[in-house]
Amino acid sequence: MIVYVSNESTITFEFDIYQTAEKVIAKVLEEEKCPYQVEVNILLTDKKGIQKYNQEMRGIDKVTDVLSFPGLYFEEPSLFQISPQEMADYVNPESGNIVLGDIVICADKVLEQANEYGHSRLREFAFLIAHSMYHLCGYDHMTPQEAVVMEEKQEKILQLLQITRDLES
Length: 169
Known about the structure:
Helix content is about 45%, strand content about 15%.
């Protein structure tokens, strides 16, 4: 697994964003039984940056907390089946890994939402990584049933990693 993290925001955190992202990503991939070596790109930006990405990529001109851009198409969530003919379309030729996708996180929203929900910045950041990883694995939350599945999976990952709501901010 390769994780690339870039921070174009001016915000720094009291925890290591790379180590946290790597831990959460690894646990999601383990739980979802991903059979491939993958890479994930993460960009932290500010409100202006995420609004720009949201407008350019989704046609939505507003600030959001996280954007997920899957690199794979899934017929069913976490059905990791790439045919040999398709493999070249998904592999980074430099690393040999499957490019699972990109995650863009608004660092300002991590701070705001941690305060709003009364938990640590670490927990909020880890939650957003878990949420995006499930999108990269083919899950969505467009229906109430899908939302329940994603919420349960996200919470399970954070519990397994002992990143709970009762950590100090």
